[in-house]
Amino acid sequence: MGELSRLYQKLFYGSSLATDVSGGLYVPHDPGMLYFQVEVDSVEKVTQAAKQILEEILRLQKEGPTEEELERVIVNSESERLYSTQTADGMAGRLGFLKFVVGDMQFDEGYLEELRSVDARKIQEVAAKYFDPRRMSGALLLPKGVQYDLKEIAELGKKMLEPQVEETSVKTKKGSTKKEVFPGPRPEVITLSNGMKVIYRERAQSHVMSIHSATLGGMRLELSDPVESAQKDWGASNLMAMTWTKGTPDKDARKIASIVEGSAANLDGFSGRHTVGVQTTGLARDWKVLSELFNETLFHPTFPTSELEHSKRVVEESIRSIEDHSAQLASKLFLETLFEKHPYGHLTAGSLESVRSIDSAKLKAFHQRWVKPSNLTLTVVGAVKRRDLDHWLKDLEKQTNRGPTENLLNKKVDEETALKAPRWTEKSLGREQLHIIVGGLGIRLTDPERYTLRILQNILGGQSGRLFIELREKKSLGYTVAPISFEGMERGYVGTYIACSPSKRQEAIDGIKTVLEVLAKKGPTPAEMARAKEFYLGRRAMDLQSDSSLASYYGLEAVYNLPYLTEEEIVRRISAVKPKDVQDFCRKFLVEPHMVTTVVG
């Protein structure tokens, strides 16, 4: 779909009816389906949203796609193979699909040529054939107690969709090949004259490149060092990320989306508890246009008011919907109860009141405060030659100067104090499933115990983990059970989550306690240690196969000023974790301290 798709432009931007618009094509061996999905914030908007979807279907049947739309689809289809073959599981998935679903291992060789031969008339014929009310189905998910008659939409479909076909012509574009990448050597670190840190790793086998920028900021600093006040600034970095790539002095959101989607790339802002930034991933052949757009977007965002209002609608709806999702509500109450003073006690989205008070001027103020060369880390990974990187960095230095600097790492936030007694929070919703979190204060990003925590999580988690075996398999106490953790610049949290029947509430809580006490008393077995270490290292290798995941990993480690460790060093640290380390960690963080217990359902 993408932001430039007709439905997204019409329902999200044009009429502001939708908070999300998506769609796709499901292609199994047997007949599959083409579908659209729209989310609205009230049942009163359903009919109008359906009407606008049908209008766009009718327009496609009558007018067909534009040349630009066809070109974008072809570019995205070409790039899909290149992106999917970055990882071992991506290649395996594609080969499995060709073998067992398509039944032709050579299918890809001719597919793109066939795709390039598709013209607007063919699209109109397909739209007329498949968007026929007699073969279309609809589904509507409503809040409990709310009524809506789907016959209204069915009648609209019958009335509006009359197949018509008109001719038009299109141009096509040729594509490229495959790639194979694996984690490898240490990246190169370059420090520019303006203080900006650049991390670079060329991957000659790749057809893709990824640029990642990051600086300290996010919820932690928006609340501890606000522009106006913590109460009014809460959620600013989240909105900043959502609107960062929606406008510059020379380009509006549509122009930016046209460049990005026309290159089958992505360009997104991001934010979290500690950081904000922008990242892009695209085909290496589009390095010049994407890197120039990245610079412009990173340093000169305008945070347009119109785009901000669209983002506010989405955020406000997500805040309202927390009450509808028991697991999210349990997490919210757990954090608020554990962290009474620290910003970690807040969700990143903000509140309805704070979101309404945030304007473009405030986002620009945070951007000016945080996005300075001396605090910024840029990471470039993929098929980018050093000479091209040097040329880009030279232009980058001209556009940015050192100016007045402030090391954001020096902005300290007081640690949350240890619990002096157990805490309990509960919200009864009368639902058929309880969501329970039991946990307490955890560790920091800089603590050497972070590797012990990784092993502990894998001993407890997964279908071979103690929590699953003891609580679900043996006692049937929960539908889902898993360890949880978060490491922060100050102490984060560790704990356990379980979803269970209301009748098994106390038994589930007692069961969690028993599993942890046994582990703290007797420690893990040699088999558990071996499985946990192998799983962590294997999962890590799989997660770091793509250019974008490597760029994100390198960049964030540098922002936190953590020492870069090679894969060999990571293996050594994981291998060095002993059973007693896990036993002591479990006792120190999950058994001996006072805990917060949250129950929602």
What key phrases describe this protein's structure?
Cytochrome Bc1 Complex, Chain A, domain 1; 3 domains; five-stranded mixed beta sheet; alpha+beta; 601 residues; 24 helices; six-stranded mixed beta sheet
Question: Would you kindly provide a written description of the structure presented here, covering whatever features stand out?
Answer:
- The structure is a single chain.
- The chain starts with 5 loop residues before the first helix and ends with a strand.
- It is of the alpha+beta class and 601 residues long.
- A 6-stranded mixed sheet has the order 3-4-8-5-7-6, with helices on both faces. Strands 9-13-10-12-11 form a 5-stranded mixed sheet, with helices on both faces. A two-stranded antiparallel ribbon has the order 1-2.
- The protein has 3 domains: 6-139 and 149-160, Cytochrome Bc1 Complex, Chain A, domain 1 (2-Layer Sandwich); 188-410, Cytochrome Bc1 Complex, Chain A, domain 1 (2-Layer Sandwich), CATH 3.30.830.10; 423-600, Cytochrome Bc1 Complex, Chain A, domain 1 (2-Layer Sandwich), CATH 3.30.830.10.
- The protein is built from 24 helices and 13 strands.
- The chain is 47% helix and 15% strand.
